[in-house]
């Protein structure tokens, strides 16, 4: 055989470059996750109109930078619910995190602690709240209202005993939004991933696959209370001295009612486009909610946050901070705790750059920026 046609020795496989933005984690997560799991975390409800609107609305927010402000190195630190946070960011509550990585909530909570930002632990977490709280840092417990009031009381007791620093109640899930990707995939949670905060067997329906049915929707219909009222929120306020956050507010009138019920913060949220398809993008209604509460409580925003510039946009629209969800799952899927830590570091770097480029010394200054809506 001629020398010039001999097979060449295989060289080392080049490592892919480190992610340069959070969207890079999305591409890698999609490559490593089963298609039905990717659809579960990536999808929205209905025709995914609201899911897409979240991103479009943020992209239409132009921020007017200030100049000659003498800001050599901006500070990213702030306070959320009266406690220090390294960024105006918290990790959003996300169910069943062991779907994307074996360490699940333990890894993501540890990454949030390392980054110095709050972590919201979901009622439907796949690791018990007691173990998640031991990861360190500030852990807020997110409550889904259950039909069994005794289980609600038990979850509250456990959250207090575990040392959670705030309580968040999600109010936009009377029923689960019709998530067509899950319906088409007949998606069911694998048996090894459980709703670890519920009694054994209470999530069996989530594991039962049937054609044309989302098993998660079947499960939540069976265990979630569909008729939560403001009286229930009054009861909840009386059950805890922790800061109370009401998540799932879009109408400014509801924000006012939440303040009257004793909320310390509201989260302007459409559940990442996963509930009412046709609800407005959160960035579109955020200023109205901020004006309605008039500094009587903190205002956070989620749904569509994909980078440091989005954090700055939310602050310029009046928010005190944001919750970031899907990007943290992407990073968790790609690299576990280390991946999530790297993603939060990247987010901090992007936010610091955005502050510098707009002449802001800190997050408080970002709330004084002016914005324009552009096409």
TrEMBL record:
<dbReference type="GO" id="GO:0016614">
    <property type="term" value="F:oxidoreductase activity, acting on CH-OH group of donors"/>
</dbReference>
<dbReference type="GO" id="GO:0010181">
    <property type="term" value="F:FMN binding"/>
</dbReference>
<feature type="binding site">
    <location>
        <position position="271"/>
    </location>
    <ligand>
        <name>glyoxylate</name>
    </ligand>
</feature>
<keyword id="KW-0285">Flavoprotein</keyword>
<feature type="binding site">
    <location>
        <position position="269"/>
    </location>
    <ligand>
        <name>FMN</name>
    </ligand>
</feature>
<protein>
    <submittedName>
        <fullName>4-hydroxymandelate oxidase</fullName>
    </submittedName>
</protein>
<feature type="binding site">
    <location>
        <position position="144"/>
    </location>
    <ligand>
        <name>glyoxylate</name>
    </ligand>
</feature>
<feature type="active site" description="Proton acceptor">
    <location>
        <position position="271"/>
    </location>
</feature>
<feature type="binding site">
    <location>
        <position position="142"/>
    </location>
    <ligand>
        <name>FMN</name>
    </ligand>
</feature>
<feature type="binding site">
    <location>
        <position position="170"/>
    </location>
    <ligand>
        <name>FMN</name>
    </ligand>
</feature>
<feature type="domain" description="FMN hydroxy acid dehydrogenase">
    <location>
        <begin position="14"/>
        <end position="375"/>
    </location>
</feature>
<feature type="binding site">
    <location>
        <position position="247"/>
    </location>
    <ligand>
        <name>FMN</name>
    </ligand>
</feature>
<feature type="binding site">
    <location>
        <position position="274"/>
    </location>
    <ligand>
        <name>glyoxylate</name>
    </ligand>
</feature>
<feature type="binding site">
    <location>
        <position position="122"/>
    </location>
    <ligand>
        <name>FMN</name>
    </ligand>
</feature>
<dbReference type="InterPro" id="IPR008259">
    <property type="entry name" value="FMN_hydac_DH_AS"/>
</dbReference>
<comment type="similarity">
    <text>Belongs to the FMN-dependent alpha-hydroxy acid dehydrogenase family.</text>
</comment>
<keyword id="KW-0288">FMN</keyword>
<dbReference type="InterPro" id="IPR000262">
    <property type="entry name" value="FMN-dep_DH"/>
</dbReference>
<dbReference type="Pfam" id="PF01070">
    <property type="entry name" value="FMN_dh"/>
</dbReference>
<keyword id="KW-0560">Oxidoreductase</keyword>
<dbReference type="InterPro" id="IPR013785">
    <property type="entry name" value="Aldolase_TIM"/>
</dbReference>
<feature type="binding site">
    <location>
        <position position="179"/>
    </location>
    <ligand>
        <name>glyoxylate</name>
    </ligand>
</feature>
<feature type="binding site">
    <location>
        <begin position="93"/>
        <end position="95"/>
    </location>
    <ligand>
        <name>FMN</name>
    </ligand>
</feature>
<feature type="binding site">
    <location>
        <begin position="302"/>
        <end position="306"/>
    </location>
    <ligand>
        <name>FMN</name>
    </ligand>
</feature>
<feature type="binding site">
    <location>
        <position position="40"/>
    </location>
    <ligand>
        <name>glyoxylate</name>
    </ligand>
</feature>
<dbReference type="InterPro" id="IPR012133">
    <property type="entry name" value="Alpha-hydoxy_acid_DH_FMN"/>
</dbReference>
<dbReference type="InterPro" id="IPR037396">
    <property type="entry name" value="FMN_HAD"/>
</dbReference>
<feature type="binding site">
    <location>
        <begin position="325"/>
        <end position="326"/>
    </location>
    <ligand>
        <name>FMN</name>
    </ligand>
</feature>
